[in-house]
Fold:
Amino acid sequence: MQALDKALAQVGRVVLGKEEQLKLALTCMLANGHLLIEDLPGMGKTTLAHALARVFKLEYRRVQFTSDMLPADILGVSVFDPNTQQFSLREGPVFTQLLLADEINRATPKTQGALLEAMEERQVTLDGVTRPLPQPFFVVATQNPVDQAGTFVLPESQLDRFLMRISLGYPAPEVELQLLAGGDLREQVRELQSVITSEGLIKLSRLVGKVRASHELLDYVQRLLDATRSDDRFVAGLSPRAGLGLLKAARAWALLSGRDYVLPEDVQAVWPSVAEHRLSARQGGSVAAITQSLLQSVPVIRR
Amino acid sequence: MARIYQVPSHTRLWLALAVLLCSLPQLVKGPPWQAGLLLLVILIRWLVEQQRMTLPGRMVRSLLLIGAVVLTFYSFGRLYGPEAGVALLVSLFALKYLEVVQQRDAYVVIVLGYFVCATALLFSQAPGMFLYVVLCMTVLTTCLVGINHSDTRASGLLHGRRALVITLQAIPLMVVLFLLVPRVAPLWNMQVGGDKARTGMSDSMSPGQISELSESAELAFRVDFQGDMPPRAQRYWRGLTLSHYDGRTWQQAVPQGQPESEYLYQRGSEKPDWYKRLEGRRSPDQQYYRYQVIAEPTQRRWLFSLDVPFPLYGDVSLAKDMRLVANQPVSERFAYRVDSVPAVSAAINLTSQERQLMLSLPEGAGRKARGLAHQWRLESDSASDIAQRALDYFRDQPFHYTLRPPRLTVDPVDDFLFRTRRGFCEHYASSFTFLMRAAGVPARVVVGYQGGERNELGSHLLVRQYDAHAWSEIWLGGHGWTRVDPTGAVAPDRIELGLREALENSEDGRDLLDDLGLRRFSDGGLFAKVSQLMDYVDFRWQTWVLGYDSAFQSEFLEDLLGAVSPVRIAIALIVAVTLLMGLYALFLLWHGGNERLTLMEREYWRLHQRASERGRPLEAGLTPMQLCQAISEQWPQAAIAADNWAKYYQKLHYDPVSLPNKQQKRHLRSLRNRLYKLLD
Structure:
């Protein structure tokens, strides 16, 4: 647990004043889930992803998505080797431990689909040969919410593949001052010390599964899920997969908070980042506002 | 292949328990081979459960069946009748249990079980047995709940709780059906337990017989007075009059040449002359006692009453010697209601045959006594004077009242009066009557009970075997038969206070009381209180439940419905049942049809509600810790108490290591109560 705190502190040195989001990002990694960051350019998305990779000593690749990209550009391609007279696979950037998929909505649905499938299966099949991706494997994808020209918006079904979605937002004034006063961010990221090895991370994520959740808590999670389904301000409610994700994220959050059992607070903490991107409001509604209001109206204790 | 619906494992355990409980009353009183059979069946089932053997095949089961039938016939001499029938039923029940494989078999066993446990009520209708049968039914219902529960891993205890709730819900319905469904006379008359030997009065009296009775604390009968109860010294419960003496034993006798039909008056039959005279003597301004007696079974016909009883209710007759007689031997608890009127006894005449009988003495017995009586007769001018002299004689000479009198030799009358002078009531009554007859005064011995002890809870009277007593009645012209109790002259305490106190005050009595264990009934300690309470419950059970027969029911229904007709009863039944069901339905609706909240959940909502009432309204979606913060914001002084509560609560509610135990729940409640006080 101390290692996790240290990791948080390390990342916090480069991504300033965003403790909440950092903790959520770490939660996502512990829960073995993929992270979607939705933000304007220049808010520190790349820095965050890079810093996470350094702290956990993960192999890190970055892919800038464009509209002319093909699935092979991500997954890799079979090449004929004239020396051996055989095809050999040239692995694409997906064969790494932490992949930063920048502006994922710029790629065509076909390319997006290829990545998302790799994310879900944690393996890649090329020319009939299935290759597992390295362990652990995380995708941190970013998306620009404003600039929609020439983009292919990810449909909800695809968004479901991401365990959590967060946005960083503008820094607070005093934090920004500090940022301006500081040196080159790239330098700083390189100077970050790794706190936990990738094997350590795998061990930790196994611990997440051991965090206890009482029957009463599961009942609360179920009631939350049910509320999204019966609320007609939403187009559709959360899927059972979303529910499993919510519970897993809550477990990871509890672990990060140094507890071996889940409290309703843990569920509430991860609730917006797990639920919002999977839901869409009927016209005129704000998903964020409605999702938040459910936390107020759904009884924590059965009544 | 047809799917086999297995009985869930925890329900198999409940089923074994149910079979055992349902058969237990029969096993306790039945022949020992039945217990052996059930043990064998349970052992086999257990071995099968452990997978150490398979269920016995058709051959073995058939052999067991034949064996059970043969043994039943061997034990009872027949296969029908209540005892043999129930024994056979219980054996078949055990054998049916042996072949349970599927749910269907289990249903058969359970339904049979409801019937088997109810047969226990054929033999005993005590409140304890009733509770036991309810317990059996609850366990059977638990099996039903278990079989029908879809979650096979659910706890068996949970099913027990549900079954208990179902049983409790059935109780109001049971009361309605009990009150309203018409009592049908049984199609056949069952004589159950007809030859039970009990302690009690016999139809004769010889020295030592009553003192034997007084060693038993068994109940003889109970009396419920409507209105006043006569004082203890007046409570002479007459049972039998004994008029024939053979020198040692007093026996009942009827004067020669008197037909019994004239001697007994049965309610509703033609009234004999003596009864008409008795009735003629009654007037409304006379003092009388109205009471109901519930007699314990004695297998005899005689009953007990005060003074001159006029039967009001019950299958009883009045004899000319002013005692009540049951028309059938009393084989189970028996209730009768009478009016006792002391003043009318003078109406009875004494025929010459009767006078002859009441003066007869055995040849040769009591020569010295006869001399003494003769002397008194010469010296006195009236019968009452003679009686007074006799009482004085007992009082002045060194007579002792004792439960353990010395043995009397050849001539009991003289031996007692002039040598041992230590005796119990029967000695005094016997010798007094002898003296009176010898002095020419018609006299007889009366045996019955004297006194009785009041149950403070039920304000009814309890008469036990140790209240057994004997006294005399002498014929005084113009007064009729008059009670004289020579024991009162020797030991006034016996009459004024009762046997136990009389013994307490006598030299050897105290040790005797301890020997007999009788003292615990009166020492005011726990035992006395508990025994009073048990007696009260038993008495009320007797009067209200078992005594609710068809006569009582039609009386009650008349009060309730105005007139008793099948249509009215049907309407009352429908209305009552609908009302009850409606209440249950309302209750369910009220609770939203949901499962009940657990204690932990209620605990949270109570606090939530209290905080919302006293302060600003709070939303539903607050975690315990957020609720605590909301409270701390509004009531800063409660911050620490709220924090304590919330921390304890979330640990108990959300850390699923173990379910919270009672102590923890109590602690949580005390934390909440402490918090409550701060929310003002």
